Sequence to fold (321 residues):
Amino acid sequence: MSLAVLAGGIMIAFGALAAGIGNGVLFSRYLEGIARQPEAQGTLFGQSMIALGLVEALPVISIAFGILVLFGIIG
Amino acid sequence: MDLTPKVKFLGMTFDVTLMIGSVVSALIVMLIVFLLSRRLTVRPNGRQNVMEYIIDFISGITGMMLEKKESAKYLSFALTTFLFILIANLLGVIVMVTATAHGSLPSLGITAADLKMTDSVSWFKSPTSDINVTVAMAAAIFLYSHFAGIAKSPLGYLQHYVKPFWWMLPIHIIDEVSKPATHALRLWANIFAGEVLIIILREGAFYFTGVPLFVWMAFSIFVGCIQAYIFTVLAMVYIAQKVGEE
Fold:
C-alpha cells in the first residue's frame, strides 16, 4: 500500500467528518427553527438548502482532491 | 478516472469530451428556451407559463442583491448561466458514454503510458466535472465584476479596498483571490465527486450496488440543481459587491 492511498483516505475521511458536523449543526438549527415557528417552514427550507450547498462545498472539495490523490492523478 | 480524447491545435490542447458536452448542453438550452418562447400571448398558455416561471425565479436571484433598475441588466446573463450549468450538471447524471481503448491513439492524445493506468475513454460526461471549464467560467465572472466596478466609478473601486480601515487592504486582497478560486472549486468538486462515485458504483455487481446507485443518482440530480443555483447566486453577489455600492 502506497502512501498516496493513505493520504487520499485521510483526506476523504476528514472531509466526511467535517461535512457530518457542519450539516448536523445546520439541520439541528433548521429543526429548532420550524419547531419554534412551524409556519416559517417554507422559507426556512429554501434558505437551509442554500446554506447546505455552501457548507457542503469545502468538504466536497477536500473529497475531490482526495479522490485525485487516491487514484494517483496528482501528488 | 477515465481518459479523455484530446486534440492539439495552435499549440493548445483541446479536450474533445468537454467540447462535445458544452456544445450539447448549449444546444439543449437554446432549444428549450426557443421552444418555450414561441408565439407569446398576453394571456400566457402552458409553455409560456413555464418560461415566465423560470424568468421570475432568476429575477428573484438578481433582485436579491441589486436594485430593480440595475438588476434588469443582468437578468439574461443570470438566466443563461443558470440554465447552462443546470443542463450541464444533469446531462452527466443521465448520460455517460465511455469506450474501451484497445491500443494507443496518438492522434487523440492517448498514449501507451496512459493506457497502463486505465483503458476506458470517456466520450460524454458533464462539462462541469472538469476543473478547466469551471475555472474559465469563474475567471470570466471575476474579470467582468472588476471591469464593471472600474467602469462605474474608478475612484470608488480603489476606495473600497481600504474600507472601512486602511489596514484591511491585505484582507481584501486575500478575499479577491479566494472568491474566484472557491467559486470554481465548489461547482467542480461537487459534480466531479458525484460522477466518480457513479462510475465506481456502476462497476460493482448490480445486486449490491444497484440500490445505492439509484439513490446516489437521485442525490446527484438534487446536488446539480442546488449547485447551479448557488453558482448563479454567487456570481450575482460578486458582481453586486463591485457594482452595487454607492
